[in-house]
Every structure is written in C-alpha cells, then in structure tokens.
Amino acid sequence: MAREINIKRGIDWITVLLYLSLVLIGYFNIYAAVYNPENPIAIFSLQHNAGRQLMFMGLATIIVTIILFVDYKIYDSFAYIFYAVMILVLIATIFIGSDIKGSKSWIKLGAFSLQPAEFSKLVTALALSKFLSSQTVNLKKFGDIWKAAALILVPPIIIILQKETGSALTFAIFMVVLYREGLPGIYPALFLAFVVLLVLSLLYSKWYILLGMLVIAAIFYGIIMPKRDRNRKNLLNIAGIVLLFSTFTMGVDFFINKVLQPHQQRRIKILVDPDADPLGAGWNVTQSKIAIGSGGFTGKGYLQGTQTKFDFVPEQSTDFIFCTVGEEWGFLGSLVLVSIYLGLLARIIHLAELQRDKFTRVYGYCVASIFFFHLLVNIGMTIGLMPVIGIPLPLLSYGGSSLWSFTILLFIFLKLDAHRSFKV
Q: d(Cα 424, Cα 420) in Å, to the nearest integer?
C-alpha cells in the first residue's frame, strides 16, 4: 500500500492527462478513418482497426501498471542489457521477420505482428542515458563522442538492412540530446549543413552547388576571416570542409539510386516535384492535402469526411491519421491537437530540467526528442513538406507496436520522475 501511495503522490498527472487525451483522440479518429456509412460496424468491433486499437489500449494499461510498480532502478541498472537484447532481436528479425510491403521489420505473433524497430528507440534512449550519465564521460572528448555515436548508429544500421529506412531516420534526433549534454556546436552545425546540402542536391545541379561552396569559402577566408587567422592551417581546414561537403554532394545520387528502395526513391521525387506522377507515387500526398484542405476552419464534422469514406487516402488510420483530423475537425481541431502535443513536449522538457539525477534528465530529453521527430515528420509528410517515410503519429496512429513503444517510453520517464522528490 505504501508503494501505491508514493506513486500516486509522485507521478505527474498533467502528463498523464495529456497522454490520455491523445490516445482517446487517436481512438475516435481511427474509427472515423475506417467508418463506412453504408455498412456501419460498432466502434468496439474487432472487425476493424478501431476495435483492435481498443484492445491495444487495454494492453497498454497493463504495461503502464507494470512500469509504475517495478523498481525504478531497473531502467538504469539494466540499460545496456536491454540494448544488447534488442540488437540481437533486430538482427534476428532480418532472418525470421515477415515481409510486409517490402520491409522485413515485423515478427508474426499469431494474428498480430510486432515491429521491434519501434522499441529499439526506447532501449537506445536508455543505453544513451546510461552512457551520458557516467561521471567519466565528456562529450568534448572525441573518443566519448564516437562511443555515443556508436550506441546511436548500430540500431538504425540494422533497421536499414530490414528495409525500414523511415524508422532508421528517427535516430538522427538523438543529436539534440548530445548537444544538450555538452556536444560542441560544430557537430550539430555540420549535421545541419549536410541536411541543407542534401536538399539543395535534390533541387539544383551538383556543379552549381560546388561552385557556390568554392565562392563562399573564398569570401569567408579572404574577407570575413580576420587577417591574423589567415594562415596555412586554417586554409587547409577550410579546404578539408569543402572537400567533405563536395564528396557528400556528389554522393547523393549514389545514395538515392543504390541505397534507397524504389518506393523510397519515388517519395523523394514527389517531395522535389509534388506534381510528378499524381496518380502514382504522388497519390498519397495529393489526396492527403485535399483531405486536410477540404476541412476548412471547423471541419466537416465527425464521421462526415468524404475523402475518408471513399478511401481516397491510403493508410489513413496509420501513417495518414492526421488527414482525418484535418478533414473532420478542420484547422481548429488540428490546432487543438498540435497544441496538446506541444503541451506534452513542454511538460516533458520541464520535468527533465527539474531532475537532480542526470540519467533521468538525459532520458527525458530522449523522450521529448523522439516524440518531436515523429510529430514533425508525420504531420509534415501529410501536408507535403516532408517525404513520406512511413512513421506513425505518436499515440494517434493505429498499431500495437507504435502505441506500446510510445507508452513505455513516456511512462518509464514518469516513473523515474516520480522519485525526484519522493523516494520509496
């Protein structure tokens, strides 16, 4: 009884309320996405995704209960073990996983499938938090930077081998966590520079980009840089950076044509030219924007979305669930939903900053970063600002793996936070 009282006193109920709000909004919008007015099926029926999502929600409740009553020290003590086990599971999935839509990232469990890649972000967050909370780790040391990078990069490399590039890209957001914990700003700056070069390489001729880099480097060294710093060493440094950027720029085509799958190549093409192949690769994004735009300011009303009812938008209960919100609840409903997400992110960051334990603080930033990346990319791809990489909207999209992974991710943090001011 004492432990139960402590949990009730220590848990952040504002975060729990935001979590429940998103899960319930997701449930009702999943039903709206699969609702057929000509053949309506009860909202609780297991014949459609909404009914199955309700079952996943029930299992999520059990998971939350277990998390809250398990000793909080286990997450720190066993972080590396969880990570090692997940690496083995990811490797095994390559060989035993079921091929679903060209991806071998799913493991069949009877009538349902589980996607280990969704849970790999969770264990990576725990392992990274364990590593960064060590008193001997200093992210200004090159060796420690590479150790942290290795922890982050191993899972996505294996996930790419499963042909699940979308989930692998999520791991890039851990750069934010490293920067918060002392990573020199030059590394995030270089990362952003590579992102900009990637976009420019898709839009313009490689030779124009190379010429532009040479001009910028010449102006920087000859005009902007103080005369006292114009020496052989700095000239070689600038030349090295230009060479690195040039190599990356010339390698973009190889990456797109040789590494990405054909459907991923088409998604990149659509991002660059939204009007290309509107009846083929561009169908999802085109119909998604039509659905969201048709909702206007207040929406068409619950269960009244025509784009949804006539299946114009594929995957509308999973990757494109935001279309249902935009069409049936309009700009106002979408604004409320995004505000709830931003409120959740702000609350997680606020709680993370209150931590006296470094492990919990780092983990809190990992949680916020993962939620933010999914929110940004998922909504961005539904309105045509991001490539369609097939990642779910946290707590809203249909799917047990997605719901459970985000639930575990969040409630482990709440469990750790519950012991900030009160120890069992």
A: 11
> Largest Cα–Cα distance in the chain?
78
163 Ramachandran zone, left/alpha/beta (phi>0; psi -120 to 50): left
Distance CA 50, CA 302 (A): 15
Question: What predicted TM-score, i.e. pTM, was given to this entire model?
Answer: 0.87
CA of 39: how far to CAs of 42, 47, 48, 233, 307, in Å?
A: 10, 12, 12, 73, 17
The residue type at 149: A
Interatomic CA distance for residues 111 and 244, integer angstroms = 49
CA dist 95 → 110, 124, 159, 175 (Å): 18, 22, 12, 30
Torsion angle of the four alpha carbons 83, 85, 88, 92, in this order, in degrees rounded to the nearest 10: -120
**pLDDT one-digit tens code per residue, 351-403:** 999 998 899 999 999 999 999 999 999 998 888 777 777 789 999 999 888 99
Q: In whole angstroms, what is the distance from residue 191 CA to residue 157 CA? A: 18
Residues 6+ apart with CB under 8 A from 220: 238
Task: Identify the bridge partners of residue 106 per DSSP, sorted by sequence position.
Answer: 98
Residues 334, 194: Cα–Cα separation, whole Å: 32
CB atoms within 10 A of CB 375: 20
Please give the single-letter amino acid code of residue 255.
F
**Strands in 45-133 per DSSP E:** 98-100, 103-109, 112-114
Q: Residues 200, 201, 204, CA angle at the centre, nearest 5°?
A: 75
